[in-house]
Amino acid sequence: MCKKLFFMLVVLAVAGIAVPASAADPNYSLAGSWNGWTPRVDMMTEGSPGELSGTLTGLTAGSRQTFKVVKTAWNAITEVYDETWIPGSSGSGSDAWLYADGAGAVTVGLNTNTVSDGWLTATNRIGLSTDGNSVGWTIAGSFGWGDNDPDGAGLPDWSTTGLPMTDMGGGIYELTLALPSGSAPGWTGDPTFNTYAWKAVVTGTWDSISEDGRGVNTANALVTVSPGQEKVTFYLDSYTGVVYSEVIPEPATMVLLGLGLALIRRKR
After folding, report:
1. Per-residue burial over 74-99, b = 16 or more CB atoms within 10 Å of its CB, e = otherwise
2. Are 171 and 225 in contact (CB under 8 A)?
3. N or C: which end of the chain has fewer CB within 10 A?
4. Which of 80, 113, 146 is a domain's end point?
5. Is the residue at 132 inside a domain?
6. In what order do the strands lie in the sheet with 106-111?
7. Are residues 82 and 26 in contact, defined by beta-carbon separation less than 8 angstroms?
């Protein structure tokens, strides 16, 4: 394929047809609410293989913006750019979000590699140099199953403020919850096991990070508890844009919490 593309570029050049300088390689750019969603303006550069970054300046201090990363490659046959929008596609999928710092700047990173460290999302991780909008993070989830439900967890149901996470420093947040197993209205399946849906949200908003990455409308992550394994610790790395959950067997709670912290240290 590469030989064919090279041959076509040579033919076009000999014929005197203009070929973009970046035609042989795909490039990445940031398109968003600050630049009219225009690709190939705010370009990203590759550091390590598969890891790109781009810095935006001149934004309003602390402002919220929505965006996508756009991968573009010149199509020598159609003579137009082929575009891939991350996350999702142009006009669909959940837009990513960012908050500028106090100087109106932010650096956006994209890791296109597949990372097998247990954190989600595993590929196309979108990271930021800023940590939300400095109001903290909350775990929102299906923890109530309706008002006054005796079979529920007795916790706020899909609340963006009710279950704040603890700031561990360096963009790492965590929260441990007791989530009962057993039957409940709205639960279908084995009545001795329960699956809860959840995501990490910027407190008071639906700007979130979940199993499919950073977005304004992310998919719900899932965690399943069972008798004797009803404590769950939720982790967030807000800078990298990934989440992780750990079900803790009751007799070994402290041991496995230590393993969870070791996982964080290895990851970072």
Report:
1. bebeeeebebebbbbeeeeebbbbbb
2. no
3. N
4. 113
5. no
6. 45-46, 51-56, 106-111, 125-128
7. no
Domain annotation covers residue 127: no
3-state secondary structure of 72: strand
Q: Which two tokens stand for residue 249?
A: 């067997």
Structure confidence at residue 242 (pLDDT):
98
Per the CB < 8 A criterion, the answer to whether 176 and 230 are in contact is no
Statement to judge: residues 83 and 180 lie in one domain: no
* Structure-token pair, residue 251: 């007799």
**CATH code, domain with 241:** 2.60.40.10
Model confidence pLDDT, tens digit, residues 136-153 = 999 999 887 544 455 567
The number of distinct structural domains making up the chain is 2
Range of the domain at 211: 137-267
